[in-house]
Design goal:
alpha/beta, Leucine-rich repeat, LRR (right-handed beta-alpha superhelix), Phosphorylase Kinase, domain 1, 19-stranded mixed beta sheet, seven-stranded antiparallel beta sheet, globular, ATP binding, Plant_LRR-RLKs, repeat
């Protein structure tokens, strides 16, 4: 790319921008409103002797300080600002002085030069997306003309300089994606320039939000996302009258959203997601707000009906909280709403038909709530809908024929409900305007009938764009239409067809169709036929005689009566068998039990052998697959031999009911039978457990990429620890088999919280709790060096940290730790294992509990690794 020439057009264009914030006087730039010496701050800032020669020297010093490979070594030769011809690449000069330094993305390696403070005419500096390191030079506060600094996406460290508050012309500062630490400078509100935008996201900043920043009357945008900020949201920030955008996502902010913030008259974007906010949603919001993100906090209460008055709202994200109650019908007045996400809450009631007035809505996510009722036919009037996810709810009734009018749809996920009836032929029109429908997920419902031929025939059919069709766990019959072979264009269509209630689909799989199943169940037999076998031949007779019809009717009635009598007999025998055998016996497993609870019916899933579908077993009992309130769930039947444990069970259940966190398996309910049977109902984690993954792929821990993935698992567990320990709850049983993964295999969740205490007593007792090999030494009475006390030490949160360290051992080596194994103290580390993994492991497994990191320190360390884009 040729160097920038100082043509009259360029000079005129850029100069017009400079004049807005600078005054040209006597051949030099001055900041507006300054007297003869605007640099006199009691610091070494001076204009004396600064000229083109000192500008050139500052640039040459920077060039020469860079490490190899140095792209500027050959490019920056000769005069930086020649009187005629081209300036250096990335440099723009005016009146023989350097005004712009733009070296974005040049792969520069080195430190920020303090000598740039001598560039007294510098207006814009862009060094983002390089490999620059070191600290931010405080002396840069002498750059009085600078209006924009972009140092994002480098490797900068150190703190934010207090002295930078003297950059009174600065309008735009970007320091995101670095490794800056320390607290937010209290002096920065002294920056008086209007229209200021500050981006400090993805760093390691700590401390609280300074309350005196409420006096910062000129700032319009503050981005502090993904740091380590703590404390509460200052109510005083309602005085920041110019603030339009505020983002503190991904910190550790606690407390509630101040009611006074509804008075922030100009705020338009507010992002408080992924913190630890609690309490009810505020009744009122700022009137100009159009984007609100409160997702992944601990907010509770109901959805405020008064929010319907925020007419400018386009994006509302409330996913991953503990919200309850119904969907407000009055929100239909949010006519500009584009995206609405209320997933992973505890919302109840029906889907408001009035929401069809949200004609601008494109994305609707109501996944994993307790919503019931039918799919509103009136929603067909939302013409701009692109993505709908209402999976894992309690929806009933048929699929609305009218939804065929959703012709812009891209994805529709209705799985894990109780929808019934046939697949509408008219749904061939879904996404037809843009031929955009790629994913249609209807699995785990009660749908019947056949797959409509029209779905894959014709110009406007689904075959044009569809890539994934989920139909498993319904009661469908018939064949897969041969026309499905053309679906998805160049990519084969994936149809999830197994398991299927009843005989299942018949015939063979068409070419270019990938028929798959849930849980690895076979979709065809050895001959290539689907589970329903050969499809029956069509009846070619044109008419049946009355005698034949009568005979068929009588035969059908007799068969039905015989089947009913046989079913009653078998049910009676199964009931007697259930009463005379224990829960762990084989005969009991042959029965698909159904339990009636106050919250609904619990029905165990039944395999082809007539047994319950067993998901796993351990020291606490067995885990089965079941359906409850329309959801597929996991049911743990506890081994409770002592009736005195029943009180402990009730206490622990009361504790579990109050837990809700992204990285803790959701507790959904329980059943307590007079016979002593104790069942815990939790969400179903379809990705299995971490222990199984380690066993199934022993070579994975040897690859460097595995440590990066392991880092994400560890971060999820650490965040779960922070949540539990903040509530004085000890897990006691941290091990790979108790870390469950979602269907993607990426999200890790803590399982079996409270079970050790439930079946072994409270934490004040001396009984062993946990799993040998992962158990902290103090739980077994071991003492560290120098401990001469004769009493057992109280159990603290540090026992979880010790077990976490041994879980890292399993990730590193792919092996299970063993008690008294000397290699645990001096492990043989694979060459590919990053050193940070071992440092973290050794810190967690310190014999002295007081020397182990806290859960929060553990989380901070792992978050630093994630922020650096590395493994541990």
């Amino acid at each position: 790319m040729p160097a920038t020439r100082r043509s009259p057009m360029i000079r005129s264009t850029v100069l017009s921008l400079l004049i807005k914030t600078m005054l040209v006087s006597g051949g030099g730039f001055r900041a507006p409103g300054y007297d003869a010496d605007p640099f006199d701050l009691g610091q070494p800032c001076t204009q004396k002797g600064l000229n083109l020669t000192t500008d050139q020297q500052a640039l040459e010093d920077f060039r020469d300080s860079l490490s190899e490979p140095n792209p500027l070594k050959d490019l920056w030769q000769g005069p930086a600002c020649p009187s005629d011809g081209a300036a250096w690449k990335g440099i723009l000069c005016f009146y023989d002085r350097v005004a712009v330094v733009n070296l974005e993305g040049k792969k520069l390696i080195g430190a920020l030069p303090a000598s740039f403070a001598n560039l007294s005419f510098l207006y814009l500096m862009d060094l983002h997306n390089n490999h620059l390191s070191g600290t931010l030079p405080p002396i840069w506060s002498c750059m009085k003309q600078i209006t924009k600094i972009n140092l994002g996406n480098n490797k900068l460290t150190g703190t934010l300089p207090q002295r930078w508050s003297h950059m009174t012309a600065l309008q735009n500062l970007t320091l995101s994606n670095n490794r800056l630490s320390g607290t937010l400078p209290a002096s920065w509100p002294n920056m008086t320039t209007v229209n200021t935008r500050y981006s400090l996201s993805h760093n390691l900043l700590t401390g609280t939000l300074p309350s005196n920043w409420s006096t910062w009357q000129t700032v319009e945008s503050l981005d502090l996302a993904y740091n380590r900020l703590r404390g509460t949201l200052p109510p005083e920030y309602s005085n920041m009258t110019r603030l339009k955008e505020f983002n503190v996502q991904g910190n550790s902010i606690v407390g509630h959203m101040p009611a006074s913030w509804s008075m922030m008259g100009n705020i338009t974007i507010l992002n408080l997601a992924s913190n630890n906010l609690q309490g009810w949603l505020p009744e009122n919001l700022p009137t100009k707000l159009y984007s609100l993100d409160l997702s992944h906090n601990s907010l509770n209460g109901t959805l405020p009906a008064a929010w319907s008055s925020i007419s400018n709202m386009t994006t509302m994200m409330l996913t991953g909280n503990s919200l309850k109650g119904a969907l407000p019908p009055g929100w239909s007045s949010l006519s500009n709403l584009n995206t609405l996400s209320l997933a992973n809450n505890s919302l109840t009631g029906g889907l408001p038909g009035e929401w069809s007035n949200m004609t601008q809505l494109q994305g609707l996510d109501l996944y994993q709530n307790h919503l019931g009722g039918v799919l509103p036919p009136s929603w067909h009037a939302m013409p701009n809908l692109l993505n709908i996810n209402i999976s894992q709810n309690n929806l009933t009734g048929p699929l609305p024929l009218q939804w065929a009018n959703l012709t812009k749809l891209s994805t529709l996920d209705l799985q894990l409900n109780m929808l019934n009836g046939p697949l509408p032929t008219s749904w061939a029109q879904l996404g037809s305007d843009r031929k955009s429908l790629t994913d249609l997920e209807l699995s785990f419902n009660q749908l019947t009938g056949t797959i409509p031929l029209d779905w894959f025939a014709g110009v406007s059919s689904l075959r044009v764009s569809l890539l994934r069709l989920g139909l498993a766990s319904n009661s469908l019959r018939g064949s897969i239409p041969p026309e499905a072979t053309n679906a998805g264009g160049q990519h084969p269509l994936e149809i999830i067809i197994a398991p299927m209630n009843g005989p299942g689909l018949c015939g063979t799989i068409p070419p270019n169709v990938n028929a798959t199943s849930q849980g690895g169940i076979a979709t065809t037999d050895a001959s290539g036929l689907l589970t329903g076998g050969l499809c029956p031949m069509p009846d070619t007779s044109k008419q049946l005689s009355k005698t034949a019809i009568a005979g068929s009717c009588i035969g059908a009635i007799l068969c039905a009566a015989l089947a009913t009598a046989l079913g009653l007999l078998l049910r009676q025998r199964q009931y007697m068998r259930q009463r005379h055998h224990s829960l762990g016996s084989n005969s009991a497993e042959l029965v698909t039990f159904t339990y009636q609870t106050e919250a609904g019916t619990l029905k165990f899933e039944q395999g082809r052998d007539g047994r319950r579908v067993l998901l796993g077993k351990g020291s606490f009992g067995k885990v089965y697959k079941a359906r409850w309130q329309g959801l597929l769930v996991a049911v743990k039947i506890l081994n409770a031999d002592d009736t005195s444990q029943q009180d402990d069970f009730r206490k622990e259940v009361a504790m579990l009911e109050g837990l809700r966190h992204t990285h803790i398996v959701n507790y959904l309910g329980h059943i307590f039978q007079e016979s002593g049977e104790m069942m815990l109902i939790t969400e179903l984690m379809q990705g299995g457990d971490l222990g199984t993954r380690l066993r199934n792929d022993m070579e994975v821990p040897r690859r460097t990429g595995w440590y990066r993935q392991g880092c994400y698992y560890a971060l999820g567990i650490a965040r779960g620890f922070v949540y539990l320990h903040s509530r004085k709850i000890i897990w006691f049983d941290c091990k790979p088999s108790n870390v469950l993964l979602d269907h993607s295999g990426m999200l890790a969740k803590i399982a079996d919280v409270g079970l050790c205490k439930m079946l072994a007593g409270t934490h004040t007792e001396t009984a062993l709790r946990g799993t040998l090999g992962y158990m902290a030494p103090e739980l077994m009475g071991y003492k560290h060096d120098g401990d001469e006390s004769h009493t057992r030490h109280p159990v603290t949160m540090a026992v979880d940290i010790y077990s976490f360290g041994l879980l890292l051992w399993a990730i590193i080596t792919g092996e299970q730790p063993r008690m008294h194994d000397e290699s645990l103290r001096k492990p043989k580390v694979p060459d590919e294992c990053p050193p940070r993994v071992m440092n973290l492991y050794l810190a967690c497994t310190a014999l002295n509990p007081q020397h182990r990191p806290t859960a929060f320190e553990l989380m901070e360390t792992i978050e630093e690794c994630v922020a650096a884009g590395q493994g541990f």
